[in-house]
Design goal:
Blueprint: H1 2-18, H2 47-54, E1 73-74, E2 96-97, H3 105-145, H4 157-166, E3 175-181, H5 182-185, H6 189-194, E4 201-209, E5 214-221, E6 231-232, E7 239-241, E8 248-250, E9 260-262, E10 266-269, E11 277-280, E12 285-287, E13 304-316
Antiparallel strand pairs: 1-2, 3-13, 4-5, 4-13, 5-7, 6-9, 7-8, 9-10, 10-11, 11-12, 12-13
Helix pairs in contact: 3-4
């Protein structure tokens, strides 16, 4: 019995010795037996790395990305899901591209920069093409106005093109010579007639009213006033107007041969009813109405109008002379 009690006391002593210490006692690490044949002492240079490998990492539950740190790059927009590319989607951490076959960041920047440069270049080319077209159109207009030896108050590139398609074929490609203009030579029908006395061939009369309409007609030079009311001209005579927005031409209808009338105090187109266009001696007032000769309506804004300017143009195959 005594021997049994001694054994029990000895076991209790061992259990008490193996029990955990109290809170006031520091925890002593307990050695874990490890077979000697399986233990290989680490070298001195790799001791710290070996110890770190035995310690648990704080990245528990996540992959070790230390070996990918050098290749982590933001995913390109085209590889992201559609909803991630929407403007209303936001994220805290942008996904990283861990693909080893993806381009480097510098290569992507170069590609994006090249794309942006190409876009800018195309924009400039588009603008250049647009400007080129505008310049070509302007050059065409300037080329047409080149045929005018002096500046006109009425002849625009559009109106010039209209005349080029309306004038007789013998006058196309000729230079326009300004024979008379009220702003340059004064207000006088006699001066207009005198400045056309050396003209051999057709001439174009252009008149403008105070409301902005431009009208007139084709005459035969030289303009020689007659003592009696004797009509002159040929079936090439016409009248025109811009009162309808675009230039409109009225040629002889064949109803009569009252092409134009030239007197010392009057210059008029048409007959058989009213004059299509009539200018007074002072070149300030005029009238316009419908007539049988050209089948036209009123050429000005009203049957009685006040003239803003009057021009008479001759035509020459050489710049500086008249036919």
């Amino acid at each position: 019995m005594l021997a049994w009690k001694e054994k029990v006391a000895d076991r209790l002593a061992r259990l008490l010795a193996d029990s955990p210490p109290t809170s006031s006692t520091a925890v002593q690490p307990q050695a874990i037996p490890f077979p000697a044949e399986h233990f290989t002492p680490p070298s001195k240079g790799s001791l710290s790395s070996y110890v770190m490998s035995l310690l648990p990492t704080s990245n528990s539950g996540h992959e070790d990305t230390s070996r990918f740190a050098g290749s982590m790059r933001p995913l390109p927009p085209e590889s992201l899901p559609k909803r991630w590319r929407e403007n209303n989607f936001s994220w805290k951490d942008r996904p990283l591209d861990l693909s080893e076959g993806s381009d480097s960041e510098s290569e992507r920047d170069e590609r994006n920069g090249s794309s942006n440069n190409n876009h800018i270049l195309e924009s400039h080319r588009s603008k250049d093409n647009h400007n080129g077209n505008a310049e070509t159109s302007t050059s065409d207009h300037l080329g047409s106005i080149y045929y005018l030896t002096e500046k006109s108050r009425f002849v625009s590139p559009i109106l010039f093109g209209f005349f080029q398609s309306s004038l007789p074929g013998t006058l196309k490609g000729c230079h326009w010579v300004l024979l008379y203009s009220t702003w340059k030579h004064g207000i006088s029908l006699r001066t207009l007639l005198r400045r056309s006395e050396h003209l051999q061939g057709p001439c174009l009369l252009i008149v403008g009213d105070m409301q902005g309409a431009v009208f007139g007609g084709l005459l035969n030079g030289p303009l020689r006033p007659t003592e009696k009311r004797k009509y002159q001209g040929t079936n090439q005579t016409f009248v025109f107007t811009t009162i309808y927005g675009e230039p409109r031409l009225f040629r002889p209808t064949g109803a009569n041969r009252y092409y134009y009338l030239c007197l010392k105090d009057t210059l008029a187109f048409g007959g058989g009813g009213k004059f299509a266009l009539r200018l007074d001696e002072d070149l300030i007032h005029g009238t316009s109405g419908s007539c049988e000769t050209f089948g036209n309506s009123c050429l000005a804004h009203g049957p009685d109008f006040e003239m803003k300017n009057v021009e008479l143009w001759g035509f020459s195959h050489s710049r500086g002379g008249s036919t």
